[in-house]
Amino acid sequence: MQTTKIERAKGVLLIVEEHDQPYLAGLSAALSSCTVKVFPRAPTTLVELALAAKKAGLTHLITTRLDVLQKLLPPDLSKKAKISNYAGSIIPYYFKGTSGEKERMDVLVLDPLKQLRTVAYGDFIAKRYISKLTEPSKWRVPSSFQWELAQDAMGYAKAKSYLACCDLIAVDIETSQKPYLHMTMVGYTGYDLRTNTSKSFVIPIKRMEDVYAMRELNALNVPKVMQNGKYDCAWFHWYSAPPVAYLYDTANAFHSWYCELPKDLGFISSFMLREYMYHKDLSSSGDWLDSCRYNALDTWATGEVFLSWLQEAPDWAKRNYIMEFAVVPGAHMCEMTGIKRDMPALTKHAKAGEEKLDALLTSVRKMVGVPKFNPSSPKQCLALLKILGEKGAESTDEKTLTAVSFKHPINERILGTILEYRGERKLTSTYLTTGESAKEFGPPGKERILYSLNPHGTDTGRLASKEHHFWCGLQVQNIPAGSVVKETLVADPGFELYECDRSQAEDRGVAYSSGDPTLLGIFTSGKDSHKLKASMFFGVPYEEITKTQRQLGKRINHGSNYNMGAAVLVETMGPRAVREAQRLLGLPKHWDLKGVAQHLLNIYANTFPTVKGKYYETIVAEVMNTRKLVGATGWTRYCFGNPAKNKMDLNGYVAHVTQSLNAMELNQSFIAIFNELAFDPDFKLMAQIHDSIFFQVRKGRRDLAERVAQLMTVHTQVTDCSGVTRTMIIPVDISGPGQSWQELKA
Length: 746
Fold this sequence. Notes:
By secondary structure, the chain is α/β, with parallel strands linked by helices. 45% of the residues lie in helices and 17% in strands.
């Protein structure tokens, strides 16, 4: 147990880059209790700095300089060092003082000082890191790091004997995909909270005896904490070593407190632990023992971060954690279930995709008259834009090509084909890969697409998705609608696919959260809300609204709901759609796209004045007065931005209110479905897709799909910006049954 009292910094020498000097005043408040001097140039040696500081009566160093950081680290670490990784680290420097005796001076690393102004939380983070020197007594004292290898029966027994008596066990694994997918080691740190002591053990996974030992330790009925533990759980289940009492997760815990901040272990360790030095570079040193020590440090840091979070996090963050962590078991089940891939269909569509790419490439090359023209080359496409008259073009992204294509039919023909080629290439290379690039998991005949679902992946609490933890699979939430990809994703034998969708959930959230009477009236009218809005926007009778007009109204509504500016609305709708709206409304032909878009936004604001007025004002006031947004479900977000001065911050917080409301309701439903149905042999929970839940049921069991819809029909009390409380109920549409995802129909 550590008992040494840490002295507060009395004086600090700042060693900063030249470009940091204009921002030095931003540190004055945090360093007001210290004597501060600035070292104005690149140091020759660290001794020079230490002696200069000591001579001036300064006790600590603070640096933003990479060259200083590199001098503090061993040669094998200094080459890879980055200020962004080590920010918040306290690195001890030992030197021979003027008396000839060994002395120590601690160096605190900070991010570039420009971030005090350019990053919403930059000032907050800098002050917190500096308080490690100026207010050390406020920081929890962690246990001392002690670790050892457990490689034989005696080592396993020692680890089990110690860990079984602990109050908490932190767990972490290391994995590799070369030469094949396998776990390389597993680490455990056990904590005795009465004495504030810990011990770490690392088991290299090389033999079945190691796996048996891992299974025994995972089965200990001691509460366990991990960092993004769904990753570890996926591997543990592959090794038939499921962890018992996995109750805590530092990634979820930190997200529940400061969702806008990074959530990797390196950052949150710097944030939560005073005497912490970034350790992640150890894993790439090439030394096997360093890798083992790195694994042990991961577990130690995970446990210490969680214990510090328990001590410091406010009650609202802990309530958030309970809500969020409850999603993890269901997300893990979905990740390990995945969806069956129809391999013959994949092969067919992949071949068709390659043939289409060849045809499009041939067409583009003929049109531009360059036999080896590459539509994916920014350099070549930029030259083409200049030939087409766009002399000031600096980018060849989709937005630019779309805008230029609208200026002339020839542009549209050439650039439209290039955009089609790029889209097809992305579709094929992302979703329809075969051979060595195949993304399926499982033996021939049982191939599945796996994915991950992340409850801490967004600021609003909505699940995020990416490829699976086994370096395979897809991002399941953004598979293009209407593409052939969903034809290759099919039900298991004897089952049918369904998807239950919360109808216009975010639109209804805006209505209930704002209390705008016109908007509320739309959702109680019994009519198609998008047609009704289009009727209001375009002045066309409801019965005469066309499919095109409905779609235009939907786009205007979406952009306006989340406070898009005119330029962004043009990007979102596309120039052609904006011009179509201009024609429908009979607007002057000389208006540019941005002018038309602004007019469309004004129509929305005039139609629903409460949304753009009192509702937005209430959100701004709540953030500025409390630094928090508290949702109708109780989910609370801490806000670093300034919506009163920064439009991007305002847009984000406006969107958060309804997106988070929808996400939290969907998460509640997801948890209820998991608890009631997930272990029914006639039901398979597969994914949460934005506003919907995707699953399959055994043929003939549509009643289970109807039960899912019932569990998704949530009654939430929503108080609007005028203080009026209403019960919001989002209707749920059932799509299915279908044998492929593409077949699902409402």
